[in-house]
Design goal:
The chain has 218 residues and is of the alpha+beta class. It is built from 5 helices and 6 strands; from the N terminus they run αααααββββββ. The relative contact order is 0.07.
Length: 218
C-alpha cells in the first residue's frame, strides 16, 4: 500500500474516533460534504474498483485456463476419431481385398471370352444358321458387362495399370516373358499377359507383362 493511502486511512481512523456523532449525522440538505469526507469516499471507491478489477482479472484467467483445457480435450478427441476412422478404413480395405481380386479374375474371364467372340469368323453354313449374329450379340453383351464391372471397380478406387509402351516397373509389374525388338529400347513393355490394377494408388494386383530385351549377340 502506498504511503499516501496509509496516511489517508490513519486520518480517517482518527477522525472517526474523535467525532463519532458527526460521522453518523447526515449533512444538512444542500450542504456540500467536507473535503476530508470526499477524499475518504474517493479512497473507498478506488479500493473497491481495484478489488473488482482483481476479481475480473482472476475470472478472465480462469476462463482462459478453461478454454485451453477444452481446446486440448477437443484436439485429443479429434485425433482419436481420426485414428478410429483410419483403422476402420484399413480394416475395410483388408476385408474387401479378396472380393476385389475375385472380381478381377471374373473380369479376366469376361475379357477373354469377349476377345474370342470378336475373333470368331463363322463359316458359310454357320452364317446361314445365324451363328454370326449370335456370337456378335454375345460379344456385345460381354462388353457391356465388362464396362459395368469396370465402373463397379472404379467406385472402389480400382483402376488398370498403364503398361504397354511403358518402362518396366518392378513394383507394379511382373515380367513373364521377353521379346526381341532391336528397334525398341530394352526394358520397354511390349505385351501384356494379364492386366494389373491399382487401388487408391497402391498395387492391388501386379501386371504380367512381356518386356523387350535386345539381342546383343546378333
Amino acid at each position: 500500500m502506498k504511503a499516501q493511502d496509509q496516511a489517508l486511512l490513519e486520518r480517517l481512523a482518527a477522525y472517526l474516533e474523535r467525532e463519532p456523532a458527526a460521522v453518523e449525522a447526515t449533512p444538512p440538505e444542500g450542504e456540500a460534504p467536507d473535503l476530508f469526507t470526499l477524499l475518504a469516499e474517493l479512497a473507498a471507491l478506488r479500493n473497491e474498483v481495484k478489488l473488482e478489477s482483481r476479481q475480473v482479472k482472476s475470472a478472465l484467467d480462469q476462463f482462459g485456463d478453461l478454454f485451453d483445457t477444452l481446446r486440448d480435450a477437443y484436439r485429443r478427441l479429434q485425433e482419436d476419431l481420426d485414428r478410429q476412422r483410419d483403422r476402420a478404413a484399413a480394416e475395410r480395405r483388408e476385408a474387401e481385398q479378396p472380393l476385389l481380386l475375385d472380381l478381377l479374375d471374373l473380369r479376366d474371364r469376361l475379357q477373354a471370352g469377349q476377345e474370342q467372340a470378336e475373333r470368331y469368323r463363322p463359316g458359310w453354313l454357320a452364317r446361314r444358321g445365324g451363328a454370326d449374329r449370335f456370337v456378335t450379340g454375345m460379344a456385345d453383351g460381354m462388353a457391356m458387362n465388362l464396362r459395368h464391372l469396370d465402373e463397379l471397380l472404379a467406385g472402389r478406387g480400382v483402376v488398370a495399370i498403364a503398361t504397354l509402351g511403358q518402362v518396366f516397373d518392378p513394383h507394379a509389374m511382373r515380367a513373364v516373358d521377353t521379346a526381341h525388338h532391336p528397334d525398341r529400347p530394352a526394358g520397354l513393355v511390349v505385351g501384356v499377359a494379364r492386366a494389373g490394377f491399382l487401388r487408391d494408388g497402391r498395387v492391388l494386383r501386379p501386371a504380367d507383362v512381356i518386356v523387350n530385351k535386345k539381342d546383343y549377340d546378333s
